[in-house]
Amino acid sequence: MSWIESIQKAINYIEEHLQETITIEQIANEVNASVFHFQRTFSILTDMSIADYIRRRRLTLAAQELINTDIKVIDLAFQYGYDSPEAFTKAFRKQHNVTPSEARKQQGPLQSYNRLVIQVSLKGAEPMKYNIVEKEKFQVVGMKRTYNCQNGENLQGIPLFWDEVNRQGIDEQLFALNDGQIKGVLGVCVPDENYKENNLMDYWIGTDHIGDVPENLFAMEVPASKWVVFEVHGPMPDAMQNAWKQIFSEWFPSNPYEPAGTAELEVYTEEDPSSENLYSEIWIPIK
Question: Which of 265, 246, 262 is nearest to 44 (CA)?
């Protein structure tokens, strides 16, 4: 089953269980996927976390029921997984900008999120340049932050982490330390060792460094792997985001590989990040 088929099957499963308690582990198991990479692929393809999708769909269906039935708000809250009418009303207002009672009286427009349909986009005019390489284990030296993937914390937190690193001048230190084979500063995404229990991922901003670790930084070992290395051309962040989407919507469905489940890398150079000619890379371990 391709990643696209897996995501669509997962969406179908979610839709069939929106009025039940469902966990991300259950959804991933339904499609025989790693929880970490399933969540990561879902967010890359849809620009939202699984939890966001479930919440938006539940509140969309709840709004439809409010308008078309006489169900009580308290019953609707429990039906869609909220512990109290107050929690439901708060979430409802955040999405729709009106309260449930105002929605029932049709006192304002509602925000509808439709069921997702994932499609493969064939774009022969936009070829992807890549290499398959074997690389021995290497050391990444840098800074680390840990994020909860279940609530989408990583999507908001990682850009703020980059701002912090740039503001403190750590990026300049990392470029100066870069003496390994991979040239540039790396954004490294890796599941926490207890990911299945805690839904946490580690995100490193670092560099491939052979020598000793400076006192203000930390180190981790990236295992030996077979990698697919994609070229990325264009300004940040759009070029990188678009490349990730193209990789999972076009490249993986068309090739006999799948992610190996270990650290994935984004490689950034010292060039102007707003340059139309900026060159970057994405490294994904494959099997």
Answer: 246
